[in-house]
């Protein structure tokens, strides 16, 4: 299934895990914020290991000191963040997946769990992922 980004933000498309198939330069986080959503971005194009992934999260999201670079801490943090409608745009998960495939699969599992538990939380993977099982989003 392919849905439109605007329909997700308007509530006409159910939250979920999506692969972005639209214009790669589109400002998805800016559009989400303009629509009243919280927007998180994650760019792993230069990340080559687990520590770098968590450093990118910590720096990009301004995580608190108790965040301990673990998947459990990530799940807890997302539970707190996604109490309001939130979109997470993950750029270049495929790059990290090429060097740390187990980490990427584990992070995706955390994201899927959070999508299932939060009322309005969606993850959009932008760029080649090498993964399947995501609906397309324009």
Short structural summary:
This protein is an alpha/beta fold and 138 residues long.
Number of domains: 1
**Stretches with pLDDT under 50, minimum 5 residues:** none
CATH architecture: 2-Layer Sandwich
3D shape: globular
**Spatial order of the strands in the main sheet?**
1-6-2-5-4-3
Q: Say how many strands there are.
A: 6
For this structure, the CATH topology is: Barnase, Chain D
The amount of beta strand, in percent, is 15-25%
What does this structure look like?
The structure is a single chain. This protein has 138 residues and is of the alpha/beta class. Helix content is 43%, strand content 20%. The chain has helices at 5-10, 28-34, 50-61, 71-81, 93-99, 101-117; strands at 2-3, 17-20, 38-43, 86-91, 121-126, 135-137. It has a six-stranded parallel sheet, sandwiched between helices. The mean pLDDT is 91.
SSE diagram, text form:
Elements: E1 2-3, H1 5-10, E2 17-20, H2 28-34, E3 38-43, H3 50-61, H4 71-81, E4 86-91, H5 93-99, H6 101-117, E5 121-126, E6 135-137
Parallel strand pairs: 1-6, 2-5, 2-6, 3-4, 4-5
Helix pairs in contact: 4-6, 5-6
